[in-house]
Structures are given as structure tokens and as C-alpha cells.
Amino acid sequence: MGKYIWKRIFFSILSLLAVTWIVMLLVYSLTDRSAIFQTDDVWNKRSNNDRVLYEYTQYQKYGYLEFINFTTFSKSKWVEIYGDAYDTCPEYEADRNIIQKVGDDYLSNETVQEFIQYYESKGYTIVRLDPIRYTTGAKQLKPGGTGYLLATRERPIISRLWEYIKGFFSVETTKDVKDETLTDRYIRFEKDPYSGLFAIVGSGTTHKYLLYFDSKFPFIHQNWIHMNLGVSFTRYRGQEISSVITDSQGDLKTKRQQYPAQVGSDIWVDTAMDFHTLTYNMGELTDAEKVQFNDKYTNATYMRDGMSMIGNSFVIGLIATAIQYMLGLPLGILMARKKDTWIDKLGMWYIIFFMSVPSLAYIFMFAAIGTSLFGLPYKFANATVKILAYILPTLSLAVHALGGTMKWMRRYMIDQMNSDYVKFARAEGLSEREIYSVHISKNALIPIIHGIPGTILFCLVGAIITESVYSVPGVGSLLTKAISGHDNGIIIACTVFYTTLSLISLILGDVLMAKFDPRISFESKGGR
Amino acid sequence: MADTKKKTAAAVNEDELFTFVSNDTLESEKIIAPRYSYWRSVFRVFFRKKSNWVAIGLLVLLFLCSFVIPMFCQYDPYENVTNAYMYNQSPSQAMKATGGFSFKWILGSGQIGNSIFYGIWASARTSLLLALICAAINMSIGILMGAVWGYSKTMDKFMLVVYSIIANIPYILLISVLVYIVGSGFWPFVFALTVTGWLGISYFFRTQVMIIRDREYSLASRCLGTPIPRIINKNILPFLTSVIVTLLATELPSYISMEVFLSFIGIGLSASVPSLGRMIQEGQVAFRTYPWAFWPPVAIAALLTIILYVLGQNLADATDPRTHM
Fold first, then answer.
1. Are A346 and A423 in contact (CB under 8 A)?
2. Which residue of A70, A220, A401, B291 shows the fewest CB atoms closer than 10 Å?
3. Angle B116-151/B50-72 helices, nearest 10 degrees?
4. For residues A312 and B308, what is the distance between their CA atoms, to the nearest angstrom?
């Protein structure tokens, strides 16, 4: 068993890599990237070379390519020599002018040659945008006609994938903070004044508390090892996607607390700061901060009263899954037992309806019925009692999944009903009830059990339609919004996340099935 | 019933009831089994069910409406785009504004003054065409590849690797990335739905073929030297007719649902192609204030999928020879 599982995990990782590579290829190489300018006003306003430069800037922002402007290069070169007075020095002036000349004159400039040589050796291509004038030789430039010299590089997909894998896990070390004034660097156990227990505290690491306890589920938290699924390029402005989906949302929740420097004194303040999330502040501390904090770890996230995006989706999905199995399995058994009676027929109509009608249609029917007849809140944000807002989304998810479970349970039960062991059980004189609920259902459950880990894990992905109909702030629309917003980092992150979930659930399903049914074995000996 | 039979029996003469038959030796040599035609029996069983007649009637009506109405009444969503008065008008108001009763405004107008009635039929046509074309492509490629995949062991090794990679990409992700790449016109959309859509069908079919491949009668054929294409064609495929029809019954409506779903989340067909998903998406914004713009496309989508599903399931039941008694 162990060897088999390791083999499965190994192949799963390979297939995860293949999937990531394919999606990277699709997203970065095969898509029509100019589509990002379709609704871009800035792009419309720019013209000539300025527009091309803007395109490069945007492409870089969306992660398609990297480019370096010659002006930046020459500036940094002369800053090194002349300091801040670089823009008055004649060499910088000469660099600037040569770029604005039409033709190949620019190649004679020393800095240009340096630039070209340096970046070509690093695999960049040099792009020359000649200045555009009204007539050749005239002085006046057309609007946006300034000349540019750029070095651009598009990373091959393999190197992108390699970078991604390399940076997937990152561990905080004491060398993380690039601040020379910080001399006392350590990682050690300390007594945590906020939980009363101990915590692992770092100095020189990005986060102060690397491992700590608090009263929130799952009670033990860490900031030590980070998983970098991907960074959002546009929608969440450079935030790491795993923090986007796990940070709690809603209004600030203040709590009576003490600042680190004031622990032990009698100064208590109401603040929403979560002191366990303190990170290093690279800037100058304000006077207030100098009083409140012992060190330069002053930035913290704020506590909020709502659940995180993934929390919302997971709660709704999990309750729906519970309903699905707790109701669906007995109902499926009942339908099989009362085959061809009105109960079975009613159940079949239920299944046909929910299997065939587009989910969108009945979710709206549900919303219409629930809001007008039972007065349940429709949009999540408008609900006065928050718990009521979860009812309709949960039910909408559950009714559909229930139909599927009933359908398969009934099918598997009926398939088992003519087996020899059932006849034998009857001959032994067992009651029909016992035969159905103990003997047949145990066998019929085997294929259903295979899907349970997947159903639970995929609650983490959220439900796209349900969440958008009821405006639940969940993760369901993360991928689709990333796709429509060309947020390539999130697309890759979602791919990796979803694929990992589906691979894990397949393996877990197999393991669970083998545990439940002793006849199934993963040993390679015999069988098949 | 029994009484009337007795009466008629009593009314006729006993001689007329029985006649002598001569002993025909030639006739007794012939062995005539009742003629059995598979497809005739399928349809006999299928049409025995009265509810199927109703479903077929409805389906024909829907087909006629969605292919004939758009032919005569061109649906132009932008015809009233400059006339803000026509935006979101209820049926009665829309008809009053355009001067008297007309079928065009029998369901009111949408958010840019488009006719809902014309819209749903033009959209239903798109949905039906999409479902038929995608199902035809996916099913034929899927079954063909599945038959070869299930039969050839070298092919099996290769295809399993391909399948395990592609099947691990969440379907919705794959479709949306594909739509994102190839664009959102009608044909690009068909391409996105079919480029990997056949793989799942193929895999399902492979398993079915494998089950039958090693049955005794197939083995016997192989021993007798029957060529493989003939085995697939004569031994395996007929056995799988009911499996194919069952697959078709779930595939056909699934494309309609898929289009509705993708258009709703904003990565479906482009605005220039009328589609049920887009109409639902536009109508849902204010579905409680302007219900006439929302429920008709929902109802058409639901009706189409239910009918296709039920008919398909019943046809699948009828294709099982065990029901032909």
C-alpha cells in the first residue's frame, strides 16, 4: 500500500507540473495579449511611440515580458559617477540627444553600445523606436513621437515554470530584512503576552511571530513557511493570492489590547490590530509608534468581523455536502427499496429536474421562492442577520448535489439487488429492512465513498453561480474574474490549486475505498 | 367483455367456427421465425409510451419555433438602442408604445429595448445548433477514438497518460482558458467545447469496449481471424448502442447548460451571437423588477434540456433489447 501511494503521489506531481506547463503555455504564449487594450482609455489617448511604450509597460505589468528602457540605464550609469547632478552632465545630455536622432547614428554612442552589449548577452532583444517627426529632418516631433531604445525579453515557458517551482515555498530567515541598522538577529522561543503561551519569535525575519497560538481555529498558526501560489498582477495589486483568499473580510473588529511596549503597564487601547501578524517596517517610525513598540515590527493586519473568502465558500459547501450525503443516501436506498412505486417515480422526477435543468435556472427559482415566500435575505451583503444569508446559498447547492447522490445510490442499490448474497440473506430469513440498510447499502456505498473526499475538498473552490447570484464574497468567481481581467498570476495560481485538489481527492478516494472494502487492494500481485 | 364474446360465439353456427385444414407437408418443412428488426422494435417500444409522444410534440414545436421564427423575424437587439423609452417595458406597455397588439412585444422588452420574444427564439436556435454540432463532433470522435483506445493496448498506454494530464485540469478552467484564447464567436466556441470534450466520452467508451473485447464470442471471432475493424464494427459497437444513446441523452442537454453557464459567468459567446445564457445573464440583474426579461429564456432553456434529457433516457431504455418483449 505504502509503495503504491508514493508512486501515485510521484505521478501526481508530474502531472501537476505538466498541467501547469500547459496552462502557462496557453496563457502566456497562445492568448491574444493585445485584448487587454480593448477597453483601455489610456491606450486610446496615446499615439505613435508613446503608445508602443505604454503597451510594453502594460505587458510587463501583466507578466508577459520584461523590458528595460535605455533612459533608465543611462541614468543609473551617470548617477553612479556624478550623483544627483547627473542630468546636467554633458554625457547624459549626449545620451539623451542621440536617442532622438533618426537613423543609425545612435549606434556610435558609447553608452548605447554598452547597453546593447550588456542586454544582448543576457538574452534580451533590442528594440529601436525611431522618433517620428512631421517631415523628415524637421525639428518638431509628432505627438507621442519621442524615440526610444528598449531591451525586451520574453521568458521561455520552461524558465517561467522553473522560477515558479523554485519560489513556491519560501522560508523566512533572519537575513530577510535588508536593514543594516538591525544588528540583533535571532529566532528563539519567547513568552507570548497575547496568548499566555510560548511563541517562536524572530528578529530579522519579515514576520515577528513565526509560530504562535491563539483562540481562532485552528489555534496554532505560523508565518514561517509561505506558499507562493501566484501574485495577482492587476485585481489585487501585487498581493499573494493565498493571502487574498484567506484574509478575513468585513468591518474592523476592535478589541481591548495593549501595544507590545505597553504590556504590563495599565494602558489599554481599543484597536483592531492583530499583533500576531506584525511585520518589519522599513521606513521611519512615527513618534507614537516609538512609544508603542519596542522594535521596528510595527505593521500588522487588522482583525475583521467577516469570514475570509475561502471560509465563506467552505462553510456553505460543507453544510451542503452534509445535507447531500445525510439525506441523499437514505433517500436513494428508499427509492431502490420501493422501486416502481410512487416514491420512486417522485424521486426520479426530482432527479431528472435537477440533472437536466441548467443550474442557473433553478437557483433563481430558489432565490425567487425563498425571498418572496419565506422572507429570506437575497443578497449576502444586505442581510441584517448574517446567519440567515447562508441559508439560500447552502440550500441551492444542496438540492442539486442531493439529486446526484440519490441517482447514483439508487443505481448502485438496484445493481446489487439481484446478487446471490441478497437471495441468501432472504433465505436466512433476515428482514427486508435489514437486507437493504445493512447488506445491500454497504456494497452500494463503495463507489460513492470514492467521491466523498473530492466533494469535501472541492468546497474550497467555491460555487461560481450560487455565489454570484447571492453575491456571497467567496472564491467561486476568482478564476473567471481573473480570466476576464487577464490576471495571469491568478489564473496560474487557480490552476495549481484546483489541480492539486483534484489529485489529492483522487488519491484520498482510492485510499478510503480500499479501507472500506477489504477486497480492493493496491498491491500489484495478482488480480486485474 | 367476456359476456359479449360469449354472445357472439353463440350467435354463429358451429360449422362456421371450425374449418378443416389439410396436412401440407411442404409447408411443415419451412421454419419461420417471427421477423425481428432491431430498430423497428426500438421504436415500437419507444412509441408505446404516451408521454414520449407529448415530449416529441413539444420538441418539434420548439425546433420549428427556433428555426422558423428567426427566419422571418430578424432579431436585432440594437434596434431600439437609441430609444430609451423602450427599455425594460412590460408586455402591455411595449405593445401600447408600438401601437397595438404584436407578437414581437408579447413578452415585453429587455434592457436595451430588444424584443424578448424574438430574442428567445434566435437564442434557442443558437443553443440547439450548438448542442447538435458539439454532440455530433464529440460523440463521433469520442466513440471512434474510444473504440480504438479500448482495443489497442499500445494506444491505451499512450492515451492514458494524455488523459490523466488533461482530465486533471478542471474542465471549467480548460474551457475558459480556451475561450479566452480562441475568442468567443460561435465557431471558436464550438472549437473550445470540442477540442478536449471528446476525451471524456472516449475514456468512458474505452472501458465499455474493454469489457466486451474479452468476452467469449469476441475471442472466438479473433481466433477465426476476423479483422479488427470488423470485430469493432460487428461484435462490439452493436452491443453498445444503448450505452451510446444514454451518453447522447446526457451530452445533448449538457451543452445547452454549459453555454448558459459560461455566458452567465462572462466567458461564453460574444454579444453579437444571440444566446440564452447571455439573455439570462442580462435579465438576472433586475429579475424581480422586470421578470418578463428573465423567466422566458430560463423557461426555454429548462424546457429544452428537460425534453432532450427525458427523450434521450427513454430512447436509451428502448434500445436495450431486453425491453423488446
1. no
2. A220
3. 120
4. 36
